Every structure is written in structure tokens, then in C-alpha cells.
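Hello again,

I reread your note about wanting to compare the complex against the isolated chains. To keep things tidy I'm splitting this into two emails, and this first one only covers the full assembly. Below are the input lines as submitted, including protein chains and any nucleic acid or small-molecule components. They are followed by the predicted structure of everything together. The single-chain runs will come separately.
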Amino acid sequence: MPGRKKLALALWLAAGLLIATAGVPAATEAPPIVQKPIAQIKKVTGQASVLRFGERRPAIVGDMLFVNDVIETGSDGGIGITFIDNTVFSAGPSSQIALDEFQFDSNDFRGAMLADMRQGTLAVVSGDIARSTPGAMKIKTPTAILGVRGTTFAVQVYGEH
Amino acid sequence: MMRRTIPALASMVLLAGCPRQALFVVLPNAEGGGVGAITVEDGKTATTLDQPYATAEARAGSTAPTAENQENISVIFRRAIAAQPILPQHIRLYFILGSDELTPESKLAYRAVFDDTKQRPVYEIEVIGFTDTVGDLPYNQALSLRRAAAIRDTLVRDGVDRRAISIVGRGKRDLLVPTADQTPEPRNRRVEITVR
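Full-complex prediction:
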């Protein structure tokens, strides 16, 4: 028991030291989650941006995308992205698509994805997830959920007026 | 039959008065081969589309198949399709028995990988190495990784960005052509390369 107490104390000291050196004020902060990229921006025309943690930044060819990113295009914009499972998304003008969920195991090509298509136009060429895991690729629209079995398709969602 | 059809028709007429909320279209498969399917579920009905240009629309929260001519579809999705990047490409290269040296044919085919990267403004390359079943597991694990590394090194030597390449070795698991153990099989001695 004393040994365990000592260990606990040492851990507290170490934690205190870490907080002190990192200069992070709140000890309540969640441990950092290392996010893996799920897609890369391959093509941009006109105005296109990425909304991440509430912050909007211009979409730049080569930038990586992560779960919970939202891709957006302006009234003259277009964006093309390729996911790590080789699914390809391309959106036309005035589009907003949230990358809500994405898991992919490159060993067996299985996984799951859910994109929330809020408005605009989207063309999709499905990749490994739709091929290896029937029903695991889904696109949510305001009125319906779309399940995908290995194919090329397009969705238009009319914006709210 | 009539019982079912009449209400369905009536609801279609009613829905037709509501504005369209969404449109769903199966497009001809980009990679050739068979067309898959999409299923649209709105909580009440499931509509499956499995033919090129098969279309469904949502009105008043309900989804139903509809007819939209090909020309309109092209106009609606023209900009989205124009934003499509070059699609991922998959290439297989083959090796000499027990070696990380490509066969003469695959040495020529290698150019396709290199040339492909030149077409893309940005690229990622995945190289997965495999072996046939000659030799034990550790030997083949190492050999498969050496094969993948050899391709990476050649690409890097040719000017491809090393950071864009990931390699992995799968040994004698995942045979392309199933064989018994200790069987030389040229088609299993390979790397599978994805450029995207």
C-alpha cells in the first residue's frame, strides 16, 4: 500500500510538472486525441472552405481532412476530395457536407462512413468501404439516409428558403 | 391491386405540388464494371436505385422514384462532376522468385505509376508487398516489405515525394492466386500500388 501511495504521489508530481512546463492552465482538459487524416483535398475551384472546430479556413489542395470537418463551397465554388479508402467526393456550388463518421482498416478494407449532406450537389465514386462492408457507407440528407453498395452516384439537396 | 394503386397515385399527385427537397441519381460507373446500388430510406419507405440514371426525389419528406431526363441530370451535377479529382488508380507489379527485383514486363509497367503521379497536383501512394508461399512466414514477411520498399526507393529516386508514399508488407497472407504452401506462383509475387 505505501508503495502504491508513493507511486500515486510521483504521478501527481509528474502531472504537475507536465502541466507547468506545458503552460496549460486547466488540469481538467481532456487528454489529446491523435486524429488520423481521413481524406485529402485534391481539387478546388472558386471559393471553398473547411469548417473545423467552429473555425472556417480556405480549402487548399493538399490539405488533409479529419472526422467532423465540414466542407463548404461558395456560389461559384467546387471541391474534390479523396478518402483513404479511395472514396471520391466532389461538390458543386453552395454545398455543405459534414464528415461525421469515418473508420477504415487498411488491412481488411472494412470500415464505416457517414457524411451529412446539408445542401448543394455532391457526386460520389464509392471506394473500399462500400465494396467490402455492404451498408457501411451512408449519406444523410435532411429527409432521408442513403446507403451505398459500390457505385457512382450523385445527390442534390435543396437549400432552405 | 387497385386499392394499393389509387392511394399511391393520389399521394404522388399531392406530393408533386410540394417543392423538391432532394434528388438522388445513380450515375454510370466511373470505373466500368457492374453498377452497384443506392438505397434511400426516409423512415417510412426504402427506395433502391440500381440502374444508371435511375432517379428518386424527396418531396414533403417522402422519397419516391421519379423520372429526370439525362440532360437535366447533367446540368444539375455539372459543377459537382467538374470538381471531381483524378480517380485513384490501382496497379500491380510482379517480381522475380525470392527477389525484390521486378520482372522485365513489370519494369516497363512501373512507368505507369510514375507517370500517374505527374498528372496529379497532389498525390498519395500506397505500396503493399506480397509473396508466394515458398519459404516460411518470417522470410516472406521480410521479403514482402523489401519489395514494397524497393518500389518506394525507385519512386523516390525518380523524384516522387517520399512523404507521400506509405509501404507495408503482407508476407504470404492474402494470396492473389490461392495455392498450397511452398508453391512458386508468379502472380502472388507482387506489390499492389494505389495512387490517389
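For quick reference: Chain A touches chain B through 46 residues (CB under 8 Å).

B.
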